Amino acid sequence: MTPSDGDRSGSRAALGLGGNVGDPLRAMAEALKTLDADPSIEIEAVSRLYRTPPWGPVAQDWFLNCCAVVRTTMEPLQLLEKCKDIEQALKRQRTIRWGPRTIDIDILTFDDLSLENERLTIPHPRMHDRGFVLLPLAEIAGDIQVRGRTVSGWSQECDKEGIDVASENGDWWRSS
């Protein structure tokens, strides 16, 4: 049974999305719509859209970011493959780490799973340091535990400098 069939026993995963090349609003909306169309994934919540300063060592444009909470019957590595396939379909180029990108989809959490291998680390190893992740995620799933604290707790202490809400519409991705 898939989550869309009303089965709430699937896993709850938090995703972070962002981009700063081309039309990141369209790319994130398309990514969310593609995830939502998959019968093994149900989008439970999507945050408002945030405009955030670039992060990392590369000079680049500002980002648009959001977070989503999904319910899925996929295993973590299957969800990762789905996210990477969507990035590729939306022309993501992996040239510079933390560099400009059309779309980035990260698995932040997956239930209360701790996983570390060469392809995936859950919870995301740097999420508790990043305001562009914590603020949108706290908005929709502040109760998620990461490193012994809630996302809401981490969001109170993160660097929020330059981060602004770009859209108050929580349903922005359906109408884009």
TrEMBL record:
EC category name: transferase
Pathway named in the protein's UniProt entry: Cofactor biosynthesis; tetrahydrofolate biosynthesis; 2-amino-4-hydroxy-6-hydroxymethyl-7,8-dihydropteridine diphosphate from 7,8-dihydroneopterin triphosphate: step 4/4
InterPro entries, per the entry: Hppk, Hppk_sf
EC number(s) stated in the UniProt entry for this protein: 2.7.6.3
Organism: Flavimaribacter sediminis
Function as written in the Swiss-Prot or TrEMBL entry: Catalyzes the transfer of pyrophosphate from adenosine triphosphate (ATP) to 6-hydroxymethyl-7,8-dihydropterin, an enzymatic step in folate biosynthesis pathway.
Alphabetical GO biological process terms: folic acid biosynthetic process
Domain of life of the native organism: Bacteria
Keyword Transferase (UniProt): yes
One Pfam family hit: HPPK
Molecular function via GO: 2-amino-4-hydroxy-6-hydroxymethyldihydropteridine diphosphokinase activity; ATP binding; kinase activity
Gene of this entry: folK
Keywords, ordered alphabetically: ATP-binding, Folate biosynthesis, Kinase, Nucleotide-binding, Transferase
Entry protein name: 2-amino-4-hydroxy-6-hydroxymethyldihydropteridine pyrophosphokinase
Stretches assigned to the 7,8-dihydro-6-hydroxymethylpterin-pyrophosphokinase domain: 97-108
Similarity annotation: Belongs to the HPPK family.
